[in-house]
Amino acid sequence: VIVTQYGFNLLVISVRLQGVTILTISTIIPSLRPPTCQEGSSSCIQANGTQLGVLHLALYLTALGTGGLKSCVSGFGSDQFDETDKDERARMTTFFNWFYFIVSIGSMAAVTVLVYIEDNLGRRWGYGICACVIVITLILFLSGTKRYRFKKLAGSPLNQIVAVVVAAWKKRKLDLPADSSALFNVDDVAETSFKKKQKLPHSKQFRLVLFFSLSLYHFRILPHD
């Protein structure tokens, strides 16, 4: 079984493609859309249930695929680099610079070039171009499968989030140490995959979460007092 993150990216790209394809088809087949409302007309024929159903299906699939892709594709990109290696860490910075630059170019093209095409040639052309771009994206994504790095997950992130919240709530009445370096960190003792996780610096925001570290901090310090 291929790593979940790769499979999820493949899934959401396919879902997005289905949504945009259905949207394109709905603008091409006359029976899937209401007749054009003539300018100056006082009455227009409304879309029927089938037409609205197809439209909603296309929009929801597109939204679902887009949301899933945005939340996962950047993480999969970062997995292709080893943060412990200086050269690869520099290349990862370059990768994300170009990644967000291309995203910005795509957004600009969507509100300029595609809008112009839809206004002058019709929505079928605008949606059709989007569908073709997604097909090309899917092909390119699949073509690199043998070259990708597949990192094993170090446990479920949802389980870890729940564990932190529960432990922090239970220890909420304890006093935080003045020196944040005294707080317990997994890297202090762990020799597992958790040791490879990036350690984020402590901040003044979300200080409730710091109480999670007290669960072992007090266990470790108090016996020596």
UniProtKB/TrEMBL annotation:
Pfam families for the chain: PTR2
Matches recorded under InterPro entries: MFS_trans_sf, POT_fam
Lipid metabolism is among the record's keywords: no
PANTHER family, per database record: OLIGOPEPTIDE TRANSPORTER-RELATED
Transmembrane segments: 98-118, 124-142
Family (UniProt): Belongs to the major facilitator superfamily. Proton-dependent oligopeptide transporter (POT/PTR) (TC 2.A.17) family.
Major location category of this protein: membrane
Keyword annotations from UniProtKB, A to Z: Membrane, Transmembrane, Transmembrane helix
Membrane topology: Multi-pass membrane protein
Keyword ATP-binding annotated: no
Residue stretches in coiled coil: none
GO molecular function, one term: transmembrane transporter activity
Gene Ontology CC annotations of this record: membrane
Gene3D superfamilies, alphabetized: MFS general substrate transporter like domains (1.20.1250.20)
Protein name: Uncharacterized protein
Subcellular location: Membrane
